[in-house]
């Protein structure tokens, strides 16, 4: 084994004297080629699903920092038997390195460098620039890929329960980088997220009909929203579901408790398959009135905050207009019903009158 001698000088000085650590013998890193061979299936690839096949970056090009996994990952995936599942591994600064997918249960290499390394025809892979990268197709040599990162997808079709387990997204650095994904395949129906606005009595502000909460200028108001999984999932399915998270919007803009407005607080209660979020607004002003939306996943529900002394008159006018419209519509419906009921009688009288005149 080739050895290197390394020496390190400590940063701070003790009593005006610099100290040195003892000599340390460290092994020279293995060559990149050897490292790649250790993670390559001898049988060879069965198909290519990369953008441009295996990528080999330019030698001698300086990289500011090495490859890494993006902070945003969906590491838990739930799917039904017979359907398809996609595990997406987000990587930044890949440069001349490659990504592999490994099944942890038997250490089977499923894909490597954009090639499928298994005879299972249900397995496929794809590589693409991350969202925001310029151009439709990028390779590892493109600067856009380096800035925006890349998404390496392992797809399994016609799922079986035996496909459940842990899968490893691996970058062939030295030492290698690994990120683990958990796939759960179930036969039961997958739950969906439902969201509803909750108008609570006794909370700050006054509850009203139709998802309306009343408050007073200078006072406080509380809006509440509930998100839940339906139907209620079984424990094994629940463990594979992401936790329910609720976000609030006011007139389309995200609400931030740390904003300059101040006086915004969020209180969240969590249960196994249910979450309730309460938004409290203190020192209410005219700009706080309006439409509020709570969002969980792709579902949302709306509430409206009205302020006494500001919205009262407009609301009363609107309420009066609605009552007038409803009354007019009721009168019109009655008149139409009367005309329909009298139509046969009028026709009969007209016939008799015609016979009499003849």
Automatic annotation (TrEMBL):
GO terms for cellular component: neuron projection membrane. It comes from the Eukaryota. One of its GO terms (biological process) is synapse organization. Residues 67-180, 191-304 form the Ig-like domain. It comes from Brenthis ino. This is Ig-like domain-containing protein. PROSITE patterns: IG_LIKE.
């Amino acid at each position: 084994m080739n050895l290197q001698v390394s020496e390190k000088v400590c940063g701070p000085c003790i009593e005006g004297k610099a100290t040195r650590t003892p000599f340390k013998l460290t092994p020279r890193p293995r060559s990149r080629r050897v490292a790649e061979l250790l993670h390559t299936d001898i049988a060879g690839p069965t198909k290519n699903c990369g953008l441009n096949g295996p990528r080999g970056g330019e030698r001698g090009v300086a990289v500011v920092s090495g490859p890494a996994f993006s902070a945003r990952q969906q590491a838990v995936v739930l799917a039904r038997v017979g359907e398809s599942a996609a595990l997406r591994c987000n990587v930044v600064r890949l440069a001349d390195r490659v990504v592999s997918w490994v099944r942890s249960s038997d250490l089977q290499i499923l894909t490597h460098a954009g090639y499928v390394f298994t005879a299972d025809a249900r397995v496929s892979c794809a590589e693409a620039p991350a969202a925001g990268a310029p151009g439709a197709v990028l390779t590892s040599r493109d600067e856009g890929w380096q800035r925006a990162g890349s998404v390496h997808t392992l797809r399994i079709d016609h799922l079986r329960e035996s496909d459940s387990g842990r899968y490893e997204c691996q970058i062939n650095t030295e030492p290698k980088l690994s990120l683990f994904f958990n796939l759960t395949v179930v036969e039961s129906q997958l739950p969906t997220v439902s969201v509803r606005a909750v108008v609570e009595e006794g909370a700050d502000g006054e509850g009203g009909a139709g998802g309306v909460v009343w408050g007073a200028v200078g006072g406080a108001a509380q809006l509440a929203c509930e998100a839940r999984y339906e139907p209620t999932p079984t424990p094994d399915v629940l463990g594979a579901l992401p936790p329910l998270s609720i976000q609030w919007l006011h007139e389309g803009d995200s609400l931030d408790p740390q904003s300059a407005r101040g006086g915004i607080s969020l209180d969240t209660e969590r249960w196994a398959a249910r979450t309730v979020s309460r938004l409290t607004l203190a020192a209410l002003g005219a700009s706080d009135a309006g439409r509020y939306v709570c969002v969980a996943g792709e579902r949302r529900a709306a509430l409206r905050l009205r302020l006494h002394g500001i919205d009262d008159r407009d609301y009363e006018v609107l309420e009066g207009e609605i009552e007038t419209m409803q009354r007019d519509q009721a009168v019109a419906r009655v008149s139409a019903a009367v005309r329909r009921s009298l139509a046969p009688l009028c026709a009969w009288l007209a016939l008799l009158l015609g016979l009499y005149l003849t």
